[in-house]
Structure formats: C-alpha cells, structure tokens
TrEMBL record:
Organism this protein belongs to: Hyaloscypha variabilis (strain UAMH 11265 / GT02V1 / F)
Signal sequence region: 1-18
InterPro entries: Beta-glucan_modifiers (IPR050732), GH (IPR017853)
Tagged with keyword Zinc: no
Protein's name in the database: Probable beta-glucosidase btgE
Localization annotation: Secreted, Cell wall
Amino acid sequence: MKAGLLAVAAAMAAGVSAKSHGHGHGHDHRRHAHEIFHAERGLANETCVAGCTTIYSTIYGEATLYNAPPPPPTSTPAPTSTYAPATVPTPYVTTCPTTGVYTFPATTLTITEEVTVCGAASTTCTPGTNTAGGVTTVVETSTTVVCPYATTTVSGGVTTSTILTTTYVCPSAGTYTIAPVTTVVSKETIWVYPTVASYPVGTYTQPEVIETVTETDYVIFCPYTSSAAPAPPAPTYKASPPPPPASSSPPSTGGYTGGLGTSGKKWAVTYSPFTSAGCKDAATVASEIQQIAAAGYSSVRVYASVCSGLETVGAACETYGLKIIAGVFIDNTGIGGGSGAAEDVSALIAWAKWSLVELIVIGNEAIFGGFVSGSELAGFISSTKASLKAAGYTGPCTTAEPLDILQANTGALCAVLDLVGANIHPFFNGGILPANAGPFVAEQLGLVDALCEGKTGINLETGWPSQGNPNGVSVPSPANQLTALVSISETCGGKSVVLSFFDDLWKAPGSCGCETSFGIQEIAGKF
C-alpha cells in the first residue's frame, strides 16, 4: 500500500512508500499464488528502517512537447490548435473551439525502452488563482527534500513540459507542497497541467475517435491503450459542464445518490475467505463473519470471487445482517476475456444478490501495480458498469488506488467513478506516529473528497500492524496498533475500511515484516 501522498513518481516524506497491496485470489493456482499479489511493498530500493529517512528517486527523460497529440483531426470547422507527432503515449487532450464534426485519426506508437516524461492531469479551476501539481510531503522534523517535479515553459508561443529536480528545506514539522504550478482564470474552466509519467516497453494505440461537437469549447480526451492487454473502447469525456452528449458519456449505475459509511466510529473491515493452505469452508466463514458482526462492523470488503467467497461470505452476511463491498480484482492476467478480472465480473453477475452489495470496487491498486494504465482502467470500469447495470445492479462502483495515483489519473477516472476510493495507510508513510494515524487519514481523505467534482471520497483500506519492523517513526506493536486504530476510529472510522479483522497468514511478510499482522481480532472490542 502506497502512502497517500502526491509523490508523483518519487516516494517522498520521512519514510518509505509501499508497493502494491493487491489481494490475490482465484480458484486455481494461477490466481491463488498469493505471493504474486502481495509483493514487496515500495520502490526497488525500499528498506524498512528506524528513525527519519527521506527516500527519493531521480527521474530522467528529455523534455517533450506538452500533450504531444496524434496527427491533426479533420473537422468542420478545423480547430485552431498546433499539432506535432506524438513521441510518447500521453493522452491527447484538446479543446474544440467551435461546433462541427471532429475526426481524430488512429495512431500507434512503439516504445522500445522504458521512458519517463511529462504526462498530464486535469482539474476544474474556479475564477481567480488556482494551484495544482507539485510534490506534497509530510515531515516530522526539519528535513531537506530532493525531488523531481513536472513543469512547463513557454518560448516563441510553444509550450513544452520537462522534469526538473529541486532541493527544498522543510524548516519544521508539517505538510509541504513543493514546486506546484499556478494559473489565473476569469471563469470556471478545465486546467490541464503536467505530471511525471512513465511508460514501459510496448505498443500503444489511440483508436480513431469521431465526435460531433454541438457547443463551443468542448474538451476531448483521447487516451492510448497498451497492447499488453486487450484494448477497451476509448471513451471521450466532456470535461466541463454541461454534461457531454449521451454518445460520449460513460454508463452510469443509475441509482447512486449519496455517500457510504456511517456517522459512527466503525463501518467496514476486509475479509479473505482463504488461508495459505486453501479455501475456508462455509462453517468457518460463517463463524468469522459472526465475530465481525459482534465487533460492531456493518460491512465487509472482499476483493474478488475467490474460494466461492460471494456465496459463502454472502450467505454469512445475510445471516448476520452485514453488507458486502464486492471486488473485481485486476492482476497480471489483464482485463480481457479469460482474465481473472473478467472471471470476477461473470461471477458477480451469476451470483446477483444485489440487495447485499453496498459497493463494487473494480480494481485494487491496478494502476499502481502496473497492470493497467489509467485510461485502460477507465474503459474497463465503464464496460463493467454497463454489464452490471444490465444484470440489475443499480448501486455505486469505484476503484481503489493510493492518493497520488488518483491525483495523477483524475482526467481518465473521474467520469467513470460514482465515488472516489482510496487506500490510505498511515504506517507506510513512515513519518506518522500511531496517535496521529487518525488525523493523517482524515487529512488525506479530505484530499480525496476534492479530486472529482461532486463525488465524495471513501477510505477503502487502512490500519496498523501489530508486529514487524519499524518504518521510520511508525513502529508495529500491539499497543501501537490499538493507539492507531483508536485514533482512526475517533476521527474517520465511519468512512474507513479497516485492514483486516484476522491476521492474513497466507501473505508474504514483506520488507517491513508486517504484512501478515494487520488483524484486529484481539483489540476489536477496545475501540
């Protein structure tokens, strides 16, 4: 689980960012090899150390044309933008200044070695001065931070983006945003600003897009898809009100109008219906769900359809009055036909006990794990929502990613999410004391709330380990786990999913030696 910081491609702050927290699943060994889905957290050079340590990565890459688009579209009338051949598969974002039919030709790019360049993110600006981007870091003491950031320069009327490195002295404990960019607007508008983006080796395709524009200043978003997985349909989004024509709108679940969670101190906890030896039987699942209900939780989050979990967990939840946060898990099998994710969608539709389902989470850190791009995930969420709706599901859908991944992919994801799901782990920030776990989660959740206009945020995974190695000032122990869980419960427990009720002994211990020890069974009655 990555710390919820806007760290772009670098892991910043006094501690270590954490790697994928994907919950492995599946009936066969291909998807049941749990070590694949709980790989070492963090960067390649991650270490779990005591004290205050600043971890950072240097980003390399030549400056490229900002939002370098595919060949110019043919249109009636033609847009006034300046076009240049694309060199990396950054999504093409353009504003059509007048009405007409715009055709964006298909474009294919092949990358022979991994490249890191400036990408793009977007946000809604209100009249006046607006600030976005940069690198946000939390420090516990005076710290010198060295970090890469994306910025733009203008020369001869041409805007270019580049990655620079800055050294910043944080004079005291606090939260700092380093090297943000600003813009001044006279009316509400969509602002596209640079971010750091990395692209692995592969072939990328931006399919042909034909759009009939019926109003001025219409924003078109054309993402590339990778050949590493079957390409979902490339959606186009209207990035500012009024809403886009029906032909370009992603499908909606149609019935979601409010927030999730409770106004109290508890809401949901994660649950895995398997062990290192195999699947739990129905009687064991029923007994454990009963314990969760007795501890005051009203919902359980399952990550996939593993071990007939929808059937066994669903039956137990129905017996003890709990709801389910169901999952579609995206792993290294991708999102095409025959993938684990496709199996989960089919299993959900076949099960179809929608009255028990509080939320469906499509992908758990799939972008962060490198299994899909933001645009690929958006396309898969869109098509999955359409399939679920056709099967009778009218509730909300979202995905779960660390905060910085969400911040870097709002342009692709916001249109297809009914609410914004984040995994916020104070322990893996490395600079958070147990007593400050709740305020940290609440602060990060506030940032999630602001990511997609009109859509609330939810914390889909959080907790503190009872055993393991120290991560900066974040130290695992039973006492610290209780202190942290009390803090989270008091500040935002009703909006957070706790990881987990039972220790997950099937996981690899991870570099911090703590992955198996997030279970709260022993302390659940104390907060």
